[in-house]
Specification:
- There is one protein chain.
- It is globular and about 70 Å long.
- It is of the alpha+beta class.
- The protein has 3 domains: 271 residues, Thrombin, subunit H, CATH 2.40.10.120; 89 residues, Pdz3 Domain (Roll), CATH 2.30.42.10; 91 residues, Pdz3 Domain (Roll).
- Strands 2, 5, 6, 7, 8, 9, 10 and 11 form an 8-stranded antiparallel β-sheet that branches.
- 14% of the residues lie in helices and 33% in strands.
Length: 501
């Protein structure tokens, strides 16, 4: 290894592919999180650091914290059945003009073959009735999710909801009386304090490592792989974290959850010094939204700001002035900042009296709020300081609750097949794929415009509403069967659900 090697930032779930033919009810700064984490009850595994006259445990004694975390940390294993087509183009019904589809040389219906991929990560139990937090990239697109407890009992799990922007997911197992971790407060985390990382790295059983917080408010641009609006304000530590630790807890010496381990910076793919953790205050907000609304309610300040690695020449070219705060490069028309009177060239220095020095700190702070909530913004303009209230808005510029349906995530325009066309095709009904947008779930499949869906997972589909009902109850990969008008034969396509946005 030499000094010129690039250090890669790596999402830390462990995966393999096998080729084959076949709420915590918490009030923080006046804000309420609605998901109840058994308010008023202490988990059986809670770490008590005071014992009568004996006082607190020593600063380097992590036995109680580890005892609290190990039973509440789970091993998550996933299975994803991917379809491969030997790099041939998508099946095209027009190839029937030539009497044969190239894929048919490879058999198996549409010329596709199955390749199951196995992956593993970690998770944190947050309620005694089986709700678990992990990373989105651990369960993304999985057909099967299995959770194994520290006592080696295993359960099939259901993905409740995901947030690719923050790389978080909530899964549920059917169990009661489980040990769980209590939420801490990541705003109280200090650089230099001791922390423990817990998980199932490198196919090992539960593993605990210790380190210190080496930085806060880090941004890596790694969530941009999963979302166009990433939320990143990582806690950086030097606790050893490796592939398989993804989704596991970072805890303080009191045994409280202060973050979800997500990534490592490494030139080798394994631990080489630093790991990165999603702060628990962001976790609480995302979990609360998923439990209450089914999808995160993301608030936006509505400004553009420079990246942290921007060069001095770029600053000069863009007219960016140096100073302690976040420089406003532009404001979103009709956004929250626009309505509050902020302008290009302003320097945001505080949010609710909390000093803000970087864009990552600002994003992390705003990520704990919902559209419609108010924050106080302090900024400098022409040497003078101003403070204004700002009502945050969602990405659409409103304060309305967003409820994303499965049809929205498909990224396609669908229409119920007309009675006339159904009669011509001699079918009872169906759903026509009129158009497919980029980056939706259908765009990631081999489905093409003009496809008429007749069945989903073996169930007849006659209307868009029937298709929606079937998909909402499904998880993993759904098998869609249908036809193309004017062409013979039934076409079958796998459609992966629970993928990133």
């Amino acid at each position: 290894m030499n000094a010129k090697q690039v250090v890669a930032v790596i999402l830390i779930s462990a995966s393999t592919a096998v080729a084959t033919m076949w709420g915590y009810n918490h009030v923080n700064s006046g804000k309420t999180y609605y998901y109840s984490q058994d308010s008023g009850k202490m988990p059986a595994n809670y770490a008590k650091f005071f014992d009568g006259d004996k006082g607190a445990a020593g600063p380097a004694d992590f036995t109680d914290a580890a005892s609290a975390a190990i039973p509440a940390t789970v091993h998550i294993k996933t299975k994803t059945v991917r379809t491969v087509s030997n790099n041939l183009p998508k099946r095209n019904p027009f190839s029937d003009l030539f009497g044969i589809d190239p894929d048919d040389f490879f058999g198996n219906g549409n010329g596709m073959r199955s390749m199951p991929e196995m992956a593993s990560g970690s998770g944190v139990i947050i309620s005694n009735d089986g709700y678990i937090v992990t990373n989105n990239h651990v369960v993304d697109g999985a057909d099967e999710v299995t959770v194994t407890l520290s006592n080696r009992k295993s359960f099939k799990a259901k993905v409740v909801g995901t947030d690719p922007s923050s790389d978080l997911a909530v899964v549920k197992i059917d169990a009661q009386g489980l040990p769980f971790l209590l939420y801490g407060n990541s705003d109280d985390v200090k650089v230099g304090q001791w922390v423990l990382a817990v998980g199932y790295p490198l196919t090992l059983e539960t593993t605990v490592t210790a380190g210190i917080v080496s930085a806060k408010g880090r941004t890596l641009n790694i969530n941009r792989r999963q979302s166009q609006t990433p939320v990143e304000s990582f806690i950086q530590t030097d606790a050893a974290v490796n592939p398989g630790n993804s989704g596991g807890p970072l805890i303080n010496p009191q045994g409280q959850l202060i973050g979800i381990n997500s990534a490592i910076a490494s030139p080798t793919g394994s631990y080489a010094g630093y790991s990165f953790t999603i702060p628990v205050n962001i976790v609480k907000k995302v979990v609360s939204d998923i439990m209450k609304f089914g999808t995160p309610q993301r608030a936006f300040l509505g400004i553009q700001y420079p990246s942290e690695n921007i060069s001095d020449d770029q600053k000069k070219e863009l007219g960016i002035k140096d100073g302690e705060g976040v420089y406003v490069m532009d404001v979103t028309p009709d956004g929250a900042a626009f309505h509050a009177g902020l302008k290009k060239g302003d320097l945001i220095t505080k949010l609710n009296s909390n000093s803000i020095n970087t864009g990552a700190e600002m994003v992390g702070f705003i990520a704990t709020y919902s559209p419609g909530e108010k924050v106080t913004v302090t900024y400098k303009r022409d040497g003078k300081e101003y403070t204004v209230p700002v009502v945050l808005r969602n990405n659409s510029g409103t304060t309305s609750v967003v409820k994303t349906s499965i049809l929205d995530r498909l990224g396609a325009t669908l229409e119920t097949l007309s009675k006339k066309d159904a009669s011509n095709l001699d079918v009872k009904g169906g759903v026509v794929v009129k158009s497919i947008a980029e980056n939706g779930l259908m765009d990631k499949s081999r489905i093409q415009e003009g496809f008429i869906i007749l069945k989903a997972n073996g169930q007849d589909v006659k209307t868009v509403e029937e298709l929606q009902t079937i998909l909402q109850k499904a998880s993993g990969t759904v098998k869609l069967e249908g036809v193309f008008a004017g062409y013979e034969g039934v076409y079958t396509y796998p459609l992966r659900l629970n993928s990133g946005d």
